[in-house]
Each structure stands twice: as C-alpha cells, then as structure tokens.
Amino acid sequence: MNAATARAPHYWLMKSEPDECSIDDALAAPDQTVPWIGVRNYQARNFMRDAMQVGDGVLFYHSSCPQPGIAGIARVASEVRPDPTQFDPDSPYHDAAAKPDAPRWLLRDVQALRKTRLLPLAELRAHPGLAGMVLLQRGSRLSITPVEPAHWALIVDGLLGGR
C-alpha cells in the first residue's frame, strides 16, 4: 500500500457474549485470534464486508451478561470470508437459505491484543465525551458498530489508561 492508497485506521466495537467467546478465550486462542462467527444482521455484515480492513482497531465488548462492557482491545486480523456456521445444520447460526456458492453471512478474524479492566456500559454512558457514540444511542443493538477516532482515543488512551 502506498501513500495514495493508504487510509486512516478505522475503529469498531464488536460485541460477543462471554459465554460464547470472551476476551480470555480470544487471548488463549492460537495467535490470540478467533473467527468472528454468527453475525446475522445485514448492516453488521456489511460493515465487515465493505468498511473493515485488516489492522483496524476493535473494542472487544462483552454483551448479554450481568455486567456488559468493554473487556479488551483487539484488531481486525483477516480479510472477509464466508462464515461456515451458516452451512452447518447443527450450528445455532445455521441458515438454510445460505448456499456455499451464494453465502449470505461473512466473518473476519479478530486478534485480541490485550485484556483491559472492564469498562461497563454505565461508565461509558456517564462520560459526556462519549455522548455521540453509536453504542450509546437509543435503539442501538448492532453487534458491530463503528467507533469515531475521538471516541477510540478517549476510551483507549483516557478511560483505559493508554495502550
């Protein structure tokens, strides 16, 4: 990539249920990398397909648990590819309408970089500098959302105390 094709890094918040894949699970995986399976929302899928690039920063967020919040920092580690769980009838993510020659659902690998202190949703909501963050908007339920560079910096360098 040369200077003409380079782009500023993008940042993402990616939600995972810790019973399925926690930051600890990701850190324990080979190369600290896990496939981000099970995305079954077209907008979240399109973010992975159209906007994410290898190297983009990720806030690893634990959801659907007693204390939801940011639990770690990660990065996008692979190009997009079909999510194999859509073809597996035994998977909770099976999609009978998806065909190997016409997959509907995609994934990217995510590499965990470090575990952080848990930054709970309530603490995020209480910080005025994060008021515009997509995660905090009423009705925001997507499992993957973009994070503005200013919000990333405030969270990673400020609230979490640096990289």
Automatic annotation (TrEMBL):
It comes from the Bacteria. Residues 11-156 form the EVE domain. InterPro entries: 5hmC_binding (IPR052181), EVE_domain (IPR002740), PUA-like_sf (IPR015947), THYN1-like_EVE (IPR047197). Pfam families: EVE (PF01878). This is EVE domain-containing protein.
